[in-house]
Write a structure and sequence with these properties.
This protein has 268 residues and is of the alpha/beta class. It has one domain: HUPs (Rossmann fold, 3-Layer(aba) Sandwich), CATH 3.40.50.620. The protein is 27% helix and 26% strand. It is built from seven helices and eleven strands. The protein has a nine-stranded mixed sheet, sandwiched between helices. Strands 2-3 form a two-stranded antiparallel ribbon. A hairpin with a 4-residue loop joins strand 7 and strand 8. The longest helix has 17 residues. The chain is globular, with a radius of gyration of 23 Å. It comes from Fibroporia radiculosa. It is found in: Mitochondrion matrix. This is Probable electron transfer flavoprotein subunit beta. Heterodimer of an alpha and a beta subunit. Belongs to the ETF beta-subunit/FixA family.
Length: 268
Amino acid sequence: MRPSAVRLLNILVPIKRTVDYAVKIRVNPDQKGIDLNVKHSMNPFDEIAVEEAVRLRERLKDAVKSIKVVTIGPPKSAETLRTALAMGADSGIHVELPESAPAPEPLGVAKALRALIQRQKEGIDLVIMGKQAIDDDAGQTGQMLAGLMDWPQATFASKVAIDVEKKEASVTREIDGGLEELRCRLPLVVTTDLRLNEPRYASLPNIMKAKKKPIEKLTPADLEVDLTPRIETLKVTEPPKRQGGGKVANVDELIAKLKEAGITAVSS
């Protein structure tokens, strides 16, 4: 039996509504960003984070007390929260922004998450989030949050194991040379990599149950954070179209073509 003195785990999973990964990106007419009038879905790395939180509860049984998901975005972001709730999260928090508001930057998001964690009366033991969002590919929020909270961090996780009694986590992460295993004390920030798991599809009964799960609505003012971007986007353009190639009959013709293009061979 688990000793009664061991505190149950509370898990927080930040998620983001992004343009669906299968959509072909197009620049909008004013060239200030991309066309957002397309299909959106949960950021794939965040979906992996939600799945891992649910799997941890399945592995640890009743040692996980709650899984809470949070998103920062316009009103439509509530749909993304409902998807996470249908996957198995218990409740959600929506820091709602106006529809026309620019997307917050990683530092602003990290500060908002810090404020949210500090508001939780029962405390947060583990934050699991995607290693990056596929819209800006910044890959900074998890590291910034760990720095602001002065918590350990384990990024690019491909395996996560929790020892509830010792309040420790063993995280296998992917590095250039292979795999690295970290042992960290809780509370902890973990960012997920693609190979951590394969997210489940929400069943129809769970989708119906998700409609009754609570979602708390907040504003940046409630958290006393300023999400105004510090970087201004001046112009967004599509990359130049690739030119078609040509065929050559032999090596001599290839060398002649390269010389015409101003490319000279470098001897090793």
